[in-house]
Amino acid sequence: FCVAFIGKAYPFRMQAIAALSKIGKVDVFGGISRNQNRSTAKKKYDTAQNYKFVFAFENDLFPGYVTEKAPEAWATGAVPLYWGLDTCGYINQKSLLNLVNYNNLEEYVERVGEVSKSAKLWSEIAEQPFLVKKPNLEEVLNVLRRALHPLVNNKS
Q1: CA distance linking residue 43 with residue 49, whole number of Å
Q2: Where are the alpha helices (DSSP H) in the chain?
């Protein structure tokens, strides 16, 4: 049903996995599991391809805090089960199931269950493109330049 690759057991993340476990088996790999195999990204990718869903909750819900979790999950062909705030509007919300788009965890889990039981619904989500717009790399470079500027100017 679902796979999760988790290093840290944040309470809300664990609550969500417990809730999802009521509708299907969630296999957990990583630092929090008994499976301490620190597999490579390739092994993670290969493993995730065997599941309908990949649990891809961000570590925290902070506007603009978007990591590799959702795009990595999407790239496996699974539907990402996401919790994050893409305030820049790059992520196609139709390409994943994002908890922030639901009123509560129970409503979210109910929707995941519906999608899990329907090949049509699952395919409609899984076949969506992940991005709705091309990232502006100049913005990324400007952030890096500002962050690195003090380090460069303090060189002796």
Answers
A1: 10
A2: 11-20, 41-48, 69-75, 105-117, 119-126, 137-153
Please say whether the beta carbons of 78 and 53 come within 8 A: yes
pLDDT tens, residue by residue, 108-127 = 999 999 999 999 999 999 99
Residues 6 or more apart in contact with residue 41 via CB below 8 angstroms: none
- pTM equals 0.84
Q: Is the pLDDT of residue 1 over 70?
A: yes
**Quick one: tokens of 74?**
């999407």
Dist. CA 26–CA 3, nearest whole Å: 5
DSSP 16: H
- Within 10 A of 2 (CB to CB), how many other CB atoms are there? 23
Residue at token pair 């995941």: 112
Cα separation, 152 vs 141, whole angstroms:
15
Task: Tell which residue, 88, 56, 79, 82, has the closest CA to residue 126.
Answer: 79
Distance CA(118)–CA(100), nearest Å, equals: 22
Taking the C-alpha atoms of residue 114 and residue 121, their distance in angstroms, rounded to an integer, is 8
- CA nearest to 4, candidates 28, 38, 30: 28
